[in-house]
Structure formats: C-alpha cells, structure tokens
Amino acid sequence: MRSPLGAFIEWGAVYGTNFSVYLSDDSKSFRDVGRILTGNGGSDSFWWRSTTSRYFRLTVHETSAPEGAIVNELKLRILNKDRMPIGQLERAAAAGRGDLYPQSLLGRQVYWTALGKYDEAEQALFDEYGNLEPQRGSPQITPLIRLDHALHGAPASASISQSLAGGSLPIPTVEWAAGDVEIRVTAFAHAGLAVMENRVTNRSAATRKGALVLAVRPVQINPYWQHGGHAAINSIVVDGRAASVNDRPYATFSRDPDSVAVADFDNGDVVRLIEKGPRKTAPSLRSDSGLLSGACEFAFSLAPGASLAVVMSSPMRDGVKPQAEAPFDALRETVAQDWRAKIGPRKITVGDREVSDTVEAQTAFILVNSTEFAFKPGPRNYDRTWIRDGSAQALALLWAGLVEEAKAYVAWYAKRIYENGMVPPILNVDGAVNRGYGSDIEFDAQGEFVGIAADVYRISRDRAFLGAIFEPIVRATRFIEELYARTDAEHSPETRFHGLLAPSISHEGHSKPSYSYWDDYFALSAWRNCEYLAREIGDEGAAANADAKGREFAANLTRSIRMTAEKMKTDLIPGSADRDDVDPTSTSIAFEPCRVDDAFPPELVAATYDRAAARVKEISSPDFKANYSPYDLRNLNAFVSLGRYDDAFRLLSAMLGMSKAARLARLGRGRVERYAGAGIYRRHASHLGRRRVLLRCPAHVAEGERRDARTLPRRARWLVGRRRHNAQRPADSLRRRQSEGAARAIAGDGRPFPVGSRPGANPRPLSGGEARPGGRQPMQHPSRRHLGPELEPAGDRFLIGLRCPRSYPAEECSGPDASWSELRGGGPDPKAGPCGSLTRRTL
C-alpha cells in the first residue's frame, strides 16, 4: 500500500477530452478520485486528499480524435512517509493518544488564525485547539492539562469553543475542559511578541490538583500538505523561566516550571514519556535527529472557583527578547483599544450579530496580514501580494472606512506598472515583481488595478491621488488593446474569440491558459473606469477613447458569450469561450466588483442563477457530504443584484452555518488546500482572498445598486424588511428584527455617499436596449426590484428611508414610520409602496 497524492498526464498529438482517474486497494473495487471534462491536450494534473491505495486506473471516456489518445508520460505522485521525519511522528500519533498530538499528524485539517499588528510585518499562528506557532516554520507549543496523573488534550474535550475579543478583534481565545477543570487560552501580538495566557479554573465543588503542561513539538501548525509539517528541533534548553530552541530564544514564562522534561524521539515525542505522570530530565538536550521535544509543567492545587494563569511570550522575529512580566489583562486591554482605534467604530451592523462580527473581523485580519504598503493573502504560503486579492482587500478596507490604507496600496502598486502598461499580477512584499509561474499570463490584473484606483478616488475624492495615478491608469488600460490584438491575430472577426483578451490563467480553476470571460469582465470594467477617471481629471480625449473602446469591447463580449452558449446548446452563461464550461461563481464577478453585468445576453441570466441557486440548496441540505468551494460566496452579490433575496439569505446562511466554518470565519482563518471533513475545500493555504469577499458581500447588500454611480442603499431592505421563516438559518434574525440592527455604512472621511449617477458619464446603451442618461446601465432583469433611497445626513452617519416596492404585498409592508415622517417634515411619501410607508434606517 502506498500514499498517492495525485497524478500527472502528458498527452501526445491526440489526447483525452473527458477522462477519470481511480484508486483501488484490491484491483476489484475502484473509487473515483477525479475527472476532467474539458481536456485540451498538453498536460493535466490531478490532486486528491491524502489516502492509501495499491492500484491506479486512468480511464479515457472521450478523445480529440476517433483513433483514441496518446499518453506520452504518466506519473503518480507518491508521498513516501517512511523517509520523512513527519512520517515517524504520524505513526507515533496514530499509535498513541491522538488528543495529545498535533491533529495534522492524524491527517486532520487544522484551522487557525493569525496574530499580528497592523504596523508590523510578522505573523504568528494560533490554532483551534490553542496551539501557538510564533514564527514562520517554527515548532509549535501545545497546552495540555494533567489531572490525576493523566494528560488531557483539547481535541478530546467534549466542550471546546473559539472566540475573538469583542466578537471581532484579532485577540483569539480557545476554551475547553477536562472534566470539571476549564482551560482558557488567549493570545495576541504585541511589540514583536506572541503573548499567550493559559488560565486553568476549577469549576468543581472540591479542590483539584494537577498541572498545566506546555509542550514544544517539532511540528508546524500548517500540515505537510500545506507546505508545513516538520519543524526541526536539534536543541532545547530550559533555564528557569526561559526556553531556547535551536540556540535561539523561544519562550519566556511568567513563573518557573515545576518540572521539565526534554526527550529525543523514541516511538513518540515527550508526551509518551510524561503521559502517565510527570518526569524530570536534564533541562537541555542536543540531537541531529531534528525530532527533539520538551515539556514544562506548572503544578496547581485549586480550590473551587480558583484559577491558575501562566503567561508565555515568544518572539515573532529575530532580535526581540521574550518577556512575560507585564500584567496580561492590562496588556490585552491596551492591544484591544489599539485595534479598536485603528479600525474605528463598527461601520456595518445588521440584526444578526454573527454577520456583523464576521464582517468586522475580516477588516482586522486584512490588516494583520499586511505590510506597510502591501496586502498579503496570508501569513505563510501566500507571503506576497496579488493585485487580484489586494485590490479586493483594499476595496473591503474602503468600505470599512480605512481609505488611507487603500490609497497607499494603489499608489505603491502604480509605481510598478510596466512601461508597456502590463500590470504585474504578483509582487513580493518588498515591491519586486514576482517572476513565478503566472507572472505574465494573468490578465485580469489590468482591470483589477484600474478598478480599485477608481473606487479609491470615488470615495476619497482626492485630486492629488488622482493626478498621481492617472498616467499609470491610462497605460494599464491601453495594454488591453495589445491583449485582444493577440487574439484577433489568430481568430477572424466571425469567430467567438474575436475581440477577447488573450488566453490567461487568471481564473484559478484553469491550470492552463484559456479564454476565460473572467478576464474580459475585468477588462470591460477597466475601460469604463478609465473613462470616468479621465472625465474627472479633465482629459476628454482619453475619456472619449476609453468610451469608444469600451463600447466596442462590450459588443464583442456580449456577442462571444451568446455564440459560445449557442455552440454549447445551453441557456446558461458560459465561463469561457474555449472550455465549454459553466461557472456562475466566476460569472458573478461581472456584478461585483466589475459592475458590467449589462454585457450579459439577458436571455441567459435567469437559468444561470437558477443553477447557482440549486447549488446553494444542495450544499445547505442536512445530508450534504461532498465538498464545496468558498468561491460560491461570490454568487451572493449576483443574487442581491437580481433581487433573489431568498437565495442570497440561503447562501449566506450556508457559508456561516457550517459548525466549524462558522467558528473559524470569526477567527479569520484563511483558505486551506485540503478537504476539511465534509466542509470546505479550499485550494490554497492561508488565503485572505475569500475573506475579503465575505466582508464585501454583506456590505454590498447595504451599499447600494451601483457604487460606480456613488449611490447608497437601494437593497438594504432585504436585510431588515421582509420576514423570512427558517429558524435553522444563523442569519434568521436579519429577517426577524425589522426595527433594529439596520445596515450601516459611512464613507471613509465620514461623509455620506452622495446619491446620483456617475459624474460626467455619457448615456450607455444596454445590450439590445436603449440608452439612458447616467452612465453605466444596470441590466434590466425581470426579477430585479428597485428600492429607491431617500438619504438625510445624521451627524457622522446618515439615515435612509427605503420605499416599500409596489411589487410587495401590502401585508409585508411595515407600516408608516412616524419618526421618519417627522424627520422629513412631512407625512407619507406619495410615491411610497402600497401602505405609503417609509422605513427609517440608520446608516
């Protein structure tokens, strides 16, 4: 039996277009582990969750030619655990008490959050069991509890919970219990240190004796399948309250340990030595094995209700001296106040506290994973910046009121645009262009850079900023012409490819370059945003050029989508022009952040999002046992734009409702690249990209029909208006609380967003429709219902009155709101809904 991780296939001149791979233990019963439906030659790769097997089968169902397919090379990716240090630890964990070992050693996905400061570059990891990894690649420290001589670990606890300070600040706490003894582990970053308090409380009616055990293990919190795994320990020294690992300061404790044990690997790490009782060894040890481990025990005898607290600090970078003398509670309060001052008062509040906390938590975690200028997707494997993720994170910060941070990011990136206008999709944190795979074939970067620059200006109205970034904006937009010129050189005007951007790998589901419409939505948004900025700065020539190019591009895009759908014989919006795929999660970016959904052929929209809605129902069902992608969350913006509020509620509830996912969304965990039970499959490690989507979605509900018209809420009523009936949904209180928890949002400078059309825009025709003044025209879909807002200033916020749409039954209206009528100085609005009411909401 071996441990295959995946397969690689290199095809010959003829190739498989539809093929599957299977594994078997006995050569009789095979299980399907992957299938590709749109093969186009070259090479293909499969990856699957960690497993064991003896037999492999490749089955080609359809080929590019009648004579079959040619396989030039077939490779199995085998994990040889026997020769890896991590394999020894895995076998020890499997043979021993699993709750005493890091859970990744048992093949389980471990969820974590990042500790850091918004003005510091380093991050520590703190996982769902209270384990801490203070530096990248460093060993982790594990809190255990000893009662009646026996050790207990958090994974075996019947009650374990995770929370953030104030519901959203990056000060996580993990609580668990061993019988009637409670362990509460709280951690935060301060002055280059990861500070962790381990508090043990006796909840019984009798005195309890035991010990808190802090064990350092040669394992990173990220597992090997996320490029973590082994963290070599070749030396450990414990000297009083100080511990060093590999001859570097590792930790300082607030009190001396009562017992110290250090051990080399011997069919188990140090917990095997101390599992049945404390053992004292020499406090230092060296070995070339890389598998040393150690444990410090802090004894207690606690009366009923009494507590013991041991504080540990560990450096998050070299040159920082660990210290644990400062009062923990006072220091934690200082850190919490600092974060609250940075983030400011809560900007978005809805009736369901879970949603509001999750949204605000993402703001903090974007900052935790940022450098002075760059927004990183994560603290470990994604320690660089993508314009794809960074632009969306900057947009999230804009809606959180952190305009200067977003502005600095755009200005920093603008200086790195190539002379020919190409936007580098990936930068290292020092600003150098990352030259890895994809560095020159991710063409969504053009529209993402232009889009976030335009949004920063729309909100900040900073003319100096506009002047500084306008020339790179024009250069980046004009590079789009070169990209579709490459396509036009290969495809004639009558083809569905004509006028599209050159093939790229921007779409993360495509490992090989393709004509994904994903890039084209961003390109169209770039032309329109460039036109807007040009008119704002007074460059009518650039504006006219962008307007003409945008119109031409929109026509080609609509035509291509329609032709591809006809070729596929489908009534759905295709995901690309060359892969015969349908992917609503990528199509939805045309709504947000691109705002170019008017380019869709209208006849294809309803069926596409019927399919997306069916997918939401599938993953929401109690018996759902497969995996789903967090990219599904993108569809929330589309559902709201189309007036499909029930589908939007169902999707948001599903994403927040998975038991573990709900806790860990609050913890701000990034993407993981492995199956997590029956929960979420996420392709990459520690990725903030989906985190900012989670932030933007509820904000989009409250932010208005079109931000490019700089309007505010025309959809907020779905958060607080119509009543829904489903007690199982975590967001149900959004529907129940019609008189509270209103959606809130303010501009970054405290000013309300003005209502109206995009300044300086020309009338733009809908696809197949007539022009209407006001710039970009929203797609007129039959299911869309418009809510007209009335805005009034109210201090540093403002009030919104949402008219009850005439399409709603009268019994669903909330009735006249006297306070709002009094505020406006009049009675019911003659243009209001059937009941003549306006609902007052604070924003």
List key phrases describing it.
5-stranded antiparallel beta sheet, single chain, 19 helices, alpha+beta
List the SSEs and their pairings.
Elements: E1 4-11, E2 16-24, E3 30-36, E4 43-47, E5 55-63, E6 71-78, H1 85-95, E7 112-115, E8 124-127, E9 132-133, E10 140-147, E11 150-152, E12 160-165, E13 169-178, E14 181-190, E15 193-202, E16 208-217, E17 235-239, E18 242-245, E19 248-253, E20 259-263, H2 270-274, E21 284-286, E22 293-302, E23 307-315, H3 328-343, H4 353-368, E24 384-386, H5 387-399, H6 403-414, E25 426-428, H7 445-460, H8 463-488, H9 517-537, H10 540-568, H11 584-587, H12 605-620, H13 635-641, H14 645-657, H15 659-667, H16 689-703, H17 717-720, H18 732-736, E26 764-765, E27 771-772, E28 789-794, E29 797-803, H19 818-824, E30 838-842
Antiparallel strand pairs: 1-4, 1-6, 2-3, 2-5, 7-8, 8-9, 10-11, 10-16, 12-13, 13-14, 14-15, 15-23, 16-22, 17-18, 17-21, 18-19, 19-23, 20-22, 24-25, 26-27, 28-29, 29-30
Helix pairs in contact: 4-16, 5-6, 5-7, 5-16, 6-7, 6-8, 7-8, 7-9, 8-9, 9-10, 12-14, 13-14
